[in-house]
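Retry 2 of 3 after timeout on previous attempt. Resubmitting structure tokens to design endpoint.
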């Protein structure tokens, strides 16, 4: 694999990480995103479904892990 193709693939994978972060707010359940954007020191913790929150966090972190491992694999492949 040439150096330019490695760089292009890594940039594409990095873009995927950014897109996961961008679209996670719309498609994955996390009530704490808006909670911590506001004045959270004066407000109580919002109601949340712990099973749904755990499942959606698991999905998001799994996607991020797979993409990150792909970046490492492409970067250090001989």
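Retry 2 succeeded. Sequence:
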């Amino acid at each position: 694999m040439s150096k330019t193709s490695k760089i292009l693939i890594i940039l594409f994978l990095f873009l995927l990480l950014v897109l996961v972060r961008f679209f996670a707010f719309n498609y994955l359940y996390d009530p704490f995103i808006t909670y911590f954007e506001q004045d959270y020191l004066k407000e109580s913790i919002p109601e949340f479904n712990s099973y749904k929150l755990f499942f959606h966090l698991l999905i998001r972190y799994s996607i991020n892990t797979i993409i990150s491992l792909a970046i490492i694999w492409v970067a250090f492949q001989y």
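Attempt log closed. Residues 3-76 form one domain.
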